[in-house]
Specification:
6-stranded parallel β-sheet; globular; binds 1,6-di-O-phosphono-beta-D-glucopyranose; binds magnesium ion
């Protein structure tokens, strides 16, 4: 293993709660039922696909693309208001400590996120220049479980997929990593789906799996 590709939302930082609040605000305004169980299905899924899931059993399911784009933009504006208030204190010392340790162990580090806001989030938490490569919602055409986002990350790092391990909190993300022929570490919602190579409880547990790179 030469590189680690980290999912962002739900792994490095808990913007997943902001996604939930922003979708909930939109759903409440429209009078559409939305809860945490539905929200879990949105993990790792693109903004427009997420909107389709939020609206799937409502009278809004058949709106035009233009109308749907307006709703997605409305949700994203609420979400970005939360992001604007973020700062380096939103990055937990445990996560930062583990990242630094993995870097010292010789791993290349990349982000593999479906989010189009990934770079803004990384800047807000003080990791704007930290990673060797960033693959995000702006450079892909197919979102997780398609492997594109992780294959692009490996390409940007100049490595083969088999040399990369992915850390993910979404079941769709674990499927994407496996489809890319990468190893997968699951945490949060994805842990316990019995598909990943390792399940972990805390981010720092990665240190027990990924030993120093040799050679
Ligand atoms: P945006 P990740 C994903 O980030 C989120 O898990 C998912 O809930 C969201 O819909 C997606 O990004 C798109 O985000 O609206 O900011 O472009 O987990 O892949 O880092
Ligand atoms: Mg995630």
């Amino acid at each position: 293993m030469k590189a680690i590709i980290f999912d962002l939302d739900g792994v490095i930082v808990h913007t997943d709660t902001y996604h939930y609040k922003a979708w909930k605000k939109l759903a409440d305004r429209l009078g559409v039922y939305f809860d945490e169980k539905i929200n879990n299905r949105l993990r790792g899924v693109s903004r427009m696909e997420s909107l389709d899931i939020v609206l799937e059993n409502s009278g809004f399911a058949k709106l035009s693309i233009t109308e749907k784009e307006k709703l997605a933009t409305e949700k994203n504006e609420t979400y970005k208001d939360f992001l604007q208030a973020m700062n380096p204190a939103d990055l937990s010392p445990q996560v930062l400590g583990a990242l630094d340790c993995l870097k010292k162990r010789g791993y290349k580090m990349a982000i593999g996120s479906s989010s189009r806001n990934a770079r803004l989030i990384l800047e807000k938490i003080g990791l704007g220049d930290y990673f060797d490569a960033i693959s995000d919602g702006n450079n892909i055409t197919r979102s997780k479980p398609d492997p594109e986002v992780f294959l692009k990350a490996a390409e940007y790092l100049g490595l083969r997929p088999e040399e990369c391990v992915v850390v993910e909190d979404a079941k769709a993300g674990i499927e994407a990593a496996l489809a890319a022929k990468m190893k997968a570490i699951a945490m949060g919602d994805a842990a316990g789906c019995s598909r990943a190579d390792w399940d972990i409880e805390n981010f720092e547990d990665i240190l027990n799996i990924l030993v120093p790179v040799v050679g």
